[in-house]
Amino acid sequence: MTDRPLALVVDDDVTVRDVVHRYLDRAGYRVLVAGDGEQALRCVAEKAPDVVVLDLMLPRLGGLEVCRRLRRDAQRVPIVVLTALGEEEDRVLGLELGADDYVTKPFSPRELVLRVASVLRRSRELPARDVDHEPVVDGDLTVDVPGRRAYRDGRALQLTTREFDLLAFLVRRPGQVFSRAELLERVWGWDFGDRSTVTVHVRRLREKVEPDPTAPRRIATVWGVGYRYDGACGATPAAAG
Question: What parts of the sequence cross the membrane (predicted)?
Answer without folding.
Answer: none
